Amino acid sequence: MTAARPRDAGGTLDPAWWTEDPERWDLLRFEAAHDAAGRPLDRWSKDRQDILEALVLAPGPIDHDFARFLLEQEIRFHRHCWGCSHTIEIAALLLAEHRRPGDVWHLWEAILASFDTWGCLPHQLLLACGGTEHTISYVTGSDHGQRDNLLGYLHKLQAVTGDDVAALMARRRRHFTDILRELDAVPERDDDR
Question: I want to staple 101 with a disulfide (CB 3.0 to 4.6 A). Which of 8, 125, 137, 138 is the partner?
Answer without folding.
Answer: 138
